[in-house]
Design a protein that fits this description.
Layout: H1 3-9, E1 16-21, H2 38-53, E2 59-64, H3 70-80, E3 88-90, H4 111-119, E4 125-130, H5 138-154, E5 159-164
Parallel strand pairs: 1-2, 3-4, 4-5
Helix pairs in contact: 2-3
């Protein structure tokens, strides 16, 4: 099935279209390697948006970017002559929310810094996956609250959607809120 066939079948029957998943994670030889070179992803993204727009008026977002490297998105944009998507999707795993929570050495960055770097592209953000995998399970519920509060209170209308990755450990243990 082609993207054209798929778009024609589901025109506005979806809430949104996300193009790829974690294209900025390059892990050749590993069991999970969704990586696509930035220049190829940019062209693929531009062409996919053009195809989908022939059938659907729904929101189109980039694949969830997980590396935190905004150079990847800049290279993709430049290869395609611009970003034609409606929003940029990110997967900010390991980012502290709010800044320095639960302590400054936890994870590997503050979510607000990551949001600001991607918002510089002039597109709203969608967090299409977020979750926590910490042995201290008492942090999980608070982290969920913190992420949603950060998006709502500090990034209203700029972070438009937040999707929690895993409700239950039955999906991908131990990422769930429920075991």
């Amino acid at each position: 099935t082609s993207l054209r066939d798929f778009s024609a079948h589901y025109p506005d029957g979806v809430d949104a279209w996300q193009i790829w998943n974690e294209p900025d994670l390059m892990a050749p030889g590993s069991p999970y390697d969704p990586g696509v070179p930035a220049r190829h992803f940019g062209v693929m993204l531009r062409d996919a948006v053009s195809t989908i727009r022939g059938y659907s008026s729904r929101t189109i977002v980039t694949g969830g970017l997980a590396s935190g490297d905004t150079n990847y998105l800049a290279q993709a944009r430049d290869a395609a002559g611009g970003l034609t998507v409606d929003a940029v999707a990110v997967h900010p795993y390991g980012q502290r929310a709010p800044d320095n929570w639960p302590y400054a050495s936890w994870g590997f960055g503050n979510m607000s810094d990551l949001f600001n770097r991607y918002l510089a592209f002039g597109k709203p953000l969608w967090v299409t996956e977020i979750g926590i995998n910490d042995p201290d399970t008492s942090l999980h519920a608070q982290y969920l609250e913190n992420v949603y509060r950060l998006a709502r209170d500090q990034y209203a209308n700029r972070v438009q959607r937040v999707f929690w990755f895993c409700w239950s450990d039955g999906m991908v243990p131990p990422w769930g809120l429920l075991d």
